[in-house]
Structures are given as C-alpha cells and as structure tokens.
Write a structure and sequence with these properties.
single chain; about 475 residues; alpha/beta; Nucleotidyltransferase, domain 5; seven-stranded mixed β-sheet; about 40% helix; globular
C-alpha cells in the first residue's frame, strides 16, 4: 500500500489528506482540517502564513501517527506570494489577492507594456490580482520592499521552502503570475524590464512531478517523521483538479467549481490570438506541458459571501436551506454578471446584487430566496456564455461537461448548469484537487505510469452523478435577456 500526503489549501480552509493506493484504487484519509482566515490590519489584508505552517506541521504529526506517508505534495490558490530576504527570512506576511492595492492597476501597467503585447507574451487572462500586477503595485507604492527582497515564492513553493529549505518555482503556479513566456515556458525578461520588476526575485522553474527536496532535520525532529521527499505536484489547485478529471480519453470540457469557477478544457498547445484576447481567456500550464485553456469566473463566492452577510444580520442559513429558498422563488426574474467588479470585495454582497438589478432596470430581488435564485441562475447563464466562447475558440464541441471540486455538492447549481448549457453534466469527483495532487505524487514515484492511467484510476476510485438537461428552450429564451443586461 502506497501512502502519500496531500496538503490542499483553499481560500477559506486547508486539509491534510493521505492518499492510499493499492495499485488499483485511491482511497482518502483526512487527517487534519483547519481554517484559513485572512487577517486585515490597517487596511491591508494578509494570509496568516505562520498559523498555516503550524497546521502543516500538525498534519505531518497526525499523518505519521495514522500510518505514515511516503511523500508530500502541496497545492494552493494561484497568484499570491511571499518575499524572502537574502538571509532566507520572510519579509512580511503574504498579502491576500482580494487586497485593494491593485485596484485600478491595469491601466497603469498598460502604459508600460501594451495590453496586446502582454497577452501575446503570456496568453494569460487579465485580472488585477495577477502576480505581475501585485509586484507592479509594490514598485509604485513600496519600492523599498522589492529592493530588500531576494526571492519571490508562490504560496505552495513558500510552504515547500519552509519544509525543505529549497527555493524553487513549480510551472503551473508560475503561469498564474502572467510573467511566464508562453513559447519558452520560462520567465519573460521583457515583462520584468518593462515593469521594472527585479528578475533576481525568480528561481528556477520545475515541472510537476519533480522532487524538490526532503524535510529538514529540524522538521523531522519536531514532527517525529523521517526524511520524506516533497514533490512539486501541479501546485495551482485548478491544474491539480484538471489532472483528476475522470476522462482518460481526453478532449473534455470541465467546470472546476469552488469559490472560483474555472471553465475550460485541456489542450496540447495554447491558443493565443485576437479572439482569445478579446474574450480574456487564459492558457495555464499543466501536467506534461499541457495547457489548461480556461476562463476564471467568480463562482460559489457569491453564495458564500451572501451567506456570511445573512449571518452578520442575525440569520444563520445552511447551504441546503439557501438552495431550498432559491427553488421556491420565481425563476428568471433578474440576472447579474457574476464577474462585475462590484462583486469581488468582501462585505454586503446581497445589497450589491439588488443595486445591480436596480441600475440595469430589472426587478429588484427582496427576499433571501429571490437573491439566491438570481445568483444561481446568473452563474448558470455565465457558464453557458463561457461554454459557447470555449467551443468557438477551440472549434470543438463537447457532449459532456465534467463538474469537479467542492461545487459538485451543490446539486441545484449542477442541475441548472446542465439546463443552461444544454449538455449532460457529470459531477465528480468532489476531491478532484486532492486526487490530482496525489496522482502526481504517484506519477513521480512511478507507481502510476501515465496521466491516462491516473485518470482511469480516479474514475474507478470515485463515484460520479449525472444531470441531464431539461427545459432547454426556456433557458435559451431567457439567455437572451441575460446577455442584454450583462453585456
């Protein structure tokens, strides 16, 4: 029995999960779960890196007690990073991608390097939170910090450094930065020069499946573990999830559903042209030099933050209760654009939904059910819009949409996605990101021989659920209204 330890960090929580592989199937044992709570101080929002690393060590201890493990892999969200000084010390807590420091930064950056040129070089979707714009904001607002920094490490690479003492950058997480040359797969000198970002901050890029190093003596002694290797998996959680799509034959459409929704497909080569620039679609690096061709969409964040606001106002709803209230509300009463900038920040999201509907001349939802119905249907319509653009760019059709990740538990959204896109939805696995993390560790050790074999094993290890489209003519009719109020 092969046992590997996966650390999976999301925007609100993290887990340490042992994957047990018997040669045919992977079973999961969660050994530690912990919250991931951003901390705001004097207007700046940080990740609590020290607490998170404490929980990594707790995961090591519990996994050891539970039967041990043969390797470690870490995946997290993209774009965020820590800065290390010449002595190997962290200069400050990594700043959260929702922090306001990059608001309005795009136009300033485009004065230094044209938008068209930046996309041609990287093929990456423009978002203010991308690493390149975070670093550019530092050059403008806090240049002394860049002057003091020796290396920049993305979140999973930073955790790996704290465990091993080795500084490296995994390929998939690096591509989220919008600083990787899409042709060479290496750092793009032209971008660093144009935005006056010091190139010395970078480290060598390693491919998924590379052994970074082993646990330091201090970590081994403190946690009571051996010199276990740390493997660079697909460290961007999206790419890790794509690795576990249960479709061994390839050529699939996927929707990785969580706080963010990532809708796309996997390609052997990136697509970078005027059309893909026009719709702002991204080409991220994946396992085996594949390309995750996808669109980032605000996803379950809209539901999560609304639920938090209702709690702040004194009413605690479960997600199941919110689904039930949404179902009881009148369908197709109003729509929002989930990716409108006003829905990105923390705070009173339901009020912003109402204001969006008011300013676009629609019915203004008043009840909790009406607000949730608006959000659910708007997400499903946004998925349809993205699906149509995906098919247009790739000149392919996809008969099935694979929904993976935590959002597969949201049966209402899965059903509405099938209706809106007029396609069968296959939901699962829920733990796609963790399974992708585990699969790459097993590929690195030689226990699994190919990505196709890994996907077959995932398909045999996990149950999936199918949703067939219904009322597609009705959805097509209201889709036109969605386009009118959101375009």
């Amino acid at each position: 029995m092969k046992r590997v330890l996966a650390f999976d960090f999301g925007a609100s929580s993290g887990r340490a999960i042992v994957g047990c592989f018997d040669g045919k199937k992977i079973t999961l044992e969660e050994v530690h779960r912990f919250s991931n709570d951003p901390v705001s101080i004097h207007g700046t929002t940080y990740w609590d890196i020290l607490r998170l690393f404490y929980d990594i060590k707790q995961g090591l201890i519990k996994a050891k007690i539970g039967g041990g493990f043969d390797s470690i892999g870490i995946d997290t969200w993209g774009v965020d990073f820590g800065l290390i000084d010449e002595h190997g010390l962290l200069l400050e807590n990594p700043i959260h991608y929702r922090d306001k420091r990059t608001v309005g930064i795009l136009e300033e950056a485009f004065k230094k390097i044209p938008k068209e040129k930046l996309y041609e070089l990287t093929g990456i979707q423009f978002m203010e939170l991308n690493t390149v714009f975070q670093l550019f904001s530092l050059r403008q607002q806090r240049p002394y910090l860049l002057d003091r920094a020796d290396k920049m490490l993305f979140m999973p690479d930073l955790f790996a450094y704290l465990l091993t003492g080795v500084k490296s950058t995994e390929y998939s997480i690096a591509t989220t930065s919008q600083m990787i040359d899409i042709k060479t797969g290496d750092w793009c000198d032209e971008i660093f020069e144009a935005l006056d970002i010091p190139k010395r901050l970078t480290t060598d890029i390693v491919k998924p499946g590379t052994v970074i190093g082993t646990l330091t003596d201090d970590i081994c002694k403190e946690c009571g573990v051996g010199k276990v290797p740390v493997v660079a998996v697909c460290e961007h959680d999206t790419q890790s999830a794509i690795t576990a799509v249960p479709c061994p034959e390839g050529d699939f459409a996927f929707l990785s559903s969580g706080t963010w929704s990532l809708f796309g497909t996997e390609l052997t080569e990136p697509i970078v042209n005027e059309k893909t620039l026009g719709i702002n679609i991204t080409n991220e690096g994946g396992y085996g030099d594949s390309t995750g061709f996808l669109k980032n969409i605000i996803g379950l964040w809209l539901i999560q933050e609304s639920r938090r606001q209702f709690a702040r106002e004194g009413t605690q709803y479960s997600y199941a209760e919110l689904e039930k209230l949404a179902l009881a509300a009148k369908p197709f009463a109003c729509f929002i654009d989930p990716d409108a900038p006003e829905f990105v920040p923390h705070g009173d999201l339901p009020s912003r939904v109402k204001e969006y509907c008011r300013k676009t001349g629609q019915y203004v939802p008043e009840t909790v059910g009406e607000i949730m119905r608006c959000i659910y249907e708007s997400l499903a319509m946004k998925y349809r819009l993205t699906f149509e653009k995906l098919r247009d760019c790739t000149e392919r059709d996809y008969e099935v949409i694979h929904v993976i990740g935590g959002g597969t538990k949201d049966t209402l959204l899965c059903r509405l996605t099938a209706n809106a896109c007029a396609r069968k939805v296959v939901a699962g696995p829920i733990e796609a990101t963790v399974l992708g993390n585990i699969a790459v560790q097993l590929l690195a050790s030689g226990d699994i021989k190919s990505i196709e074999e890994a996907r077959r094993i995932v398909a045999e290890s996990e149950d999936t659920k199918e949703y067939l489209p219904e009322d597609t003519d009705v959805w097509a009719k209201h889709y036109k209204h969605f386009l009118q109020v959101t375009q």
